[in-house]
């Protein structure tokens, strides 16, 4: 190899190092902002959990509220997988999809049917690849999720429950612990009386999915 080629390759490597370092700095800054938002929102999330739980308990004695009615039998289970829109995130997305698929197979092996919903392009595409077309697909907002996005998903899930299309709704997501640790967690959303997602606070929420 000529000396000129060696120098050119060395310069190319240096340029790649500069680009990689810049990308790392951008990613670190975005991660810090995301962590700050998480910490700032945790007190509100805890308060909303408590308020919703108290409202559900108080409304339990009020008749003709379909969202509070437990179905006589749980024949169809709705599973909501919360993933990201982008890949290149290690096991962040794949472990959610695997946990959701495992939950679906458990229910189906027990004689129940399952309906999948997915938030995030990675979850939607992974389900489609596995031949599990999601009934609800919600994408394009994972970088900056807003209340309206959660409201749209909740409205579809509640409508499916009230209309009897599903008899139970569960959510599978990554519970954030640290930049290097996210715990795959499976929670019950509906029926509201059994909603494990309302039981949490600052400690462990729901149940971690083993083997992930």
Structure explained in plain terms:
- The protein has helices at about 5-60, 95-110, 120-130, 145-160; strands at about 75-80, 115-120, 135-140, 170-180, 180-190, 205-210.
- The protein has a 6-stranded mixed sheet, sandwiched between helices.
- Strand 1, helix 2 and strand 2 form a beta-alpha-beta unit.
- With about 210 residues, it is an alpha/beta fold.
- The chain is built from 4 helices and 6 strands.
Low-confidence stretches: 201-205
Q: Which percent band covers the strand fraction?
A: 15-25%
Tally of individual domains: 2
Task: Enter the CATH topology name of the largest domain.
Answer: Pyruvate Kinase, Chain: A, domain 1
The CATH superfamily of the largest domain bears the name ATP synthase, F1 complex, gamma subunit
Largest sheet: 6 strands, mixed
- Return Rg in Å: 21 Å
Q: Shape, please?
A: elongated
Span between termini: 48 Å
What is the number of E strands? 6
Average pLDDT for all residues: 83
Helix/strand structural class? alpha/beta
Please tell me the CATH architecture of the largest domain by its name: 3-Layer(aba) Sandwich
Order of helices and strands: HEHEHEHEEE
Structure at a glance:
The chain is α/β, with parallel strands linked by helices. Helix content is 46%, strand content 19%.
């Amino acid at each position: 190899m000529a000396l000129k080629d060696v120098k050119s390759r060395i310069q190319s490597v240096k340029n790649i190092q500069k680009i990689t370092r810049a990308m790392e700095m951008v990613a670190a800054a975005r991660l810090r902002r995301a962590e700050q938002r998480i910490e700032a929102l945790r007190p509100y999330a805890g308060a909303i959990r408590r308020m919703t739980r108290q409202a559900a308990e108080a409304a339990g004695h009020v008749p003709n509220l379909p969202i509070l009615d437990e179905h006589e039998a749980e024949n169809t289970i709705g599973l909501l997988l919360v993933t990201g829109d982008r890949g290149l995130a290690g096991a962040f997305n794949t472990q959610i999809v695997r946990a959701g698929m495992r939950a679906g197979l458990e229910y189906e092996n027990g004689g129940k049917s399952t309906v999948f919903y997915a938030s995030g392009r990675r979850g939607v595409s992974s389900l489609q690849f596995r031949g599990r077309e999601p009934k609800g697909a919600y994408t394009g907002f994972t970088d900056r999720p807003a209340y309206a996005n959660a409201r749209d998903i909740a409205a579809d899930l509640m409508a499916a429950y009230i209309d009897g299309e599903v008899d139970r709704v569960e959510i599978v997501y990554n519970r954030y612990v640290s930049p290097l640790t996210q715990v795959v967690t499976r929670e019950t959303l509906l029926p509201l009386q059994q909603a494990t997602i309302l039981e949490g606070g600052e400690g462990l929420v729901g149940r971690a999915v083993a083997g992930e």
